[in-house]
Specification:
The protein is of the alpha+beta class and about 120 residues long. It has one domain. It is about 35% helix and about 30% strand. The protein has helices at about 1-20, 55-70, 85-90; strands spanning about 25-35, 40-45, 75-85, 95-100. It has a 4-stranded mixed beta sheet. A hairpin with a 2-residue loop joins strand 1 (about 25-35) and strand 2 (about 40-45). It is elongated, with a radius of gyration of 19 Å. It starts with a helix and ends in a 15-residue tail after the last strand.
């Protein structure tokens, strides 16, 4: 009976820790802005605090909107987002994904530069 109660307590502690991790907002660890006359690139490293699947499009749109509120008026803006699931993943350098999105939060395969005249 004691073993069963101990097992139930451990499972409840584990589940509560996972729930607490899921409800935390994302955390920006590092941000760099590279700019030139026709391009502005934001390189952002962040922890999303999620074990469940992540909606990449929603996350990219949310981060791009937040950064453009602070840094508006930049030409041809792109974001490179390095995503880590938890702080433990970051500490052990286990990268979840890298996203590239434009200034409107749309995921793009590569940076598209305008023509020079």
């Amino acid at each position: 009976m004691k073993k069963r109660n101990l097992l139930i307590a451990l499972i409840l502690i584990l589940l509560s820790a996972l729930c607490m991790e899921e409800y935390r907002p994302y955390e920006v660890l590092h941000s760099t802005v590279l700019s030139s006359p026709n391009l502005t690139e934001h390189k952002i490293t962040l922890i999303v605090h999620s074990i469940l699947p992540i909606d990449h499009e929603r996350l990219a749109k949310e981060i791009s909107e937040e950064y453009l509120q602070m840094n508006s008026g930049q030409p041809n803006t792109y974001f490179e987002l390095k995503l880590y699931r938890t702080r433990l993943h970051y500490r052990f350098d286990v990268l979840y994904d890298t996203l590239l999105c434009d200034g409107e939060g749309r995921l793009v395969p590569e940076i598209i530069l305008g023509k020079f005249f």
